[in-house]
Amino acid sequence: MTVNRRYVSPRRQEQARQTRRAILDAAAKLFVDPGYAATPLTAVAAEAGVAVQTVYAVFGNKRQLLSDLVDVTLAGDDEPVALPDRAFVAEIRALTGLRAKLARFARHLTETHARQVHVMLALAGAATADADAAAIWRKNLEERRRGMLMFAADLAATGEVRVSAGRAADALWLAQDIRNYDWLVVQQGWSAEQFQQWYVDSVAAVLGAPDLNAS
Q1: Using alpha carbons only, what angle is made at residue 141 by residues 153 and 29, rounded to the nearest 5 degrees?
Q2: Residue 80: is the preceding peptide bond cis (ω within 30°)?
Q3: Which residue in 61, 75, 81, 196 is deepest, having the highest Cβ count within 10 Å?
Q4: For residue 91, with 0-12 CB atoms within 10 Å meaning exposed, 13-18 middle and 19 or more buried, which class applies?
Q5: Distance from CA of residue 184 to its chain's centroid?
């Protein structure tokens, strides 16, 4: 029996990736200024240099475009690799001390924030008035919380954490908020190194303190 295999052209795959990237880049620009609500998909298409039908074909709708933009901006690429499976996570797990783990995460966090600060602040602003943006913002918050619960468990294994898992996750979740980076680095002019040191010192101080509310 002859099996017909579908031929997939590497050239077409690359063209599709380039088209997707161009649309995401256009959205990253326009969703920040003039803003998500003020940007129709026709404007995104024009900025990307494609037909609006192409935008719909690739992303389906405006909400999905925003969701994918947030995911790609956070990850730094469009590769199908979940964050827990990324190299920096393995590097953190291989370290032994609390401050060493926090320092490696702080470097990753700073790189990520530098890439996503404008998009995430635009999303936060859009979430106050747009239901789709609000849903994506809530999803991001929930995913960050789950991530910090896993990070808290890894840090607890060092034996240096003196607070409950919940309190540790709360501190980690708050310290990584994009608005901290925006205020300290973007607005106040801190260097990446200063921000990383602030993160490590702040989180280590909370995690290493007695948990007076623990039962």
Answers
A1: 130
A2: no
A3: 196
A4: middle
A5: 18
CATH for 11-62 is 1.10.10.60
Torsion of CA 123, 134, 166, 94, to 10 degrees: -40
Residue 82's pLDDT is 66
Q: Quick one: CA dihedral 186, 171, 200, 153, positive or negative?
A: negative
Q: Assess contact for 122 and 73: CB atoms under 8 A.
A: no
- CA geometry: angle at 138 spanning 134 and 141, to 5°? 140
All residue ranges of the chain with pLDDT < 70 are 1-8, 76-84, 211-215
CA distance 149 to 177: 15
| Cα 38 to Cα 56, 58, 85, 131, 196, distances in angstroms | 18, 21, 36, 14, 35
The angle subtended at Cα 128 by Cα 71 and Cα 46, nearest 5°, is: 55
Q: How far apart are CA 202 and CA 31, in angstroms?
A: 32
Round to whole Å and give the CA distance between 23 and 154: 37
Q: What is the pLDDT of residue 199?
A: 97
Question: Which DSSP string do the residues of 13-80 spell out, in sequence order?
Answer: HHHHHHHHHHHHHHHHHHIIIIISTT--HHHHHHHHTS-HHHHHHHHSSHHHHHHHHHHHHHHSS--S
